[in-house]
Amino acid sequence: VGAIETAQPEGVIRVVVEAHEALGAVWIGEDPGAKALLHGFLLVAGGEGLLLIEHALFLAVSLEDVVDGRTFQVERLLQQATAKLPADPLAFYYLADAAERRAHFDVARQALVDYIALAGDEPDARRRAGLALRVADLSMRVKDYPFAVAWYERAAPGFSGDASVLVRQAEARWRAGQPDAAVAMLDKILEKNPANVAALNLRSRVR
Prior knowledge:
Blueprint: H1 2-5, H2 9-22, H3 24-27, H4 32-62, H5 68-82, H6 89-101, H7 105-119, H8 125-141, H9 145-155, H10 163-175, H11 179-192, H12 197-205
Helix pairs in contact: 2-4, 4-5, 4-6, 5-6, 6-7, 7-8, 8-9, 9-10, 10-11, 11-12
């Protein structure tokens, strides 16, 4: 624990995650003494906010494909973690995952936007584009098409050659009331690949 206490925040999270994966049986076991010891370890390592994040991660890692009730616990715990001050960006990132798994797309999108705002500029361009794409796709799920258009634009540099992303971007533009822009995008896609089924289907619907 001493080494963890002096680590940087990123190191704290990484070390604790590795530790709790090894101690998963203790966390979900029935021995209240062992569980109390693990509580104490995590509290020393990073405080209550981190404890909530690690608890939720434990449930997700140890029981990933189990009943929906367990997924509900993960989402609820992470929502509590995002309310703790100072806010930990990772709480929002993991909340986005948990909420999306439960089809709570609006919650997932907002959590991801909050994560991006709190974490700052992602240095890796591909990851930065991937996060933006995920926000755009979630915006389509909740039918917020102007927001989707904006985030597809942010994702575009990382997916300039990905026809499936371009078709989704074109659909967002169409549904946001920009049919001419959508047609122009689809025509470019079909110029390169006239047999692109998704582009052909959408092109037939755009008016």
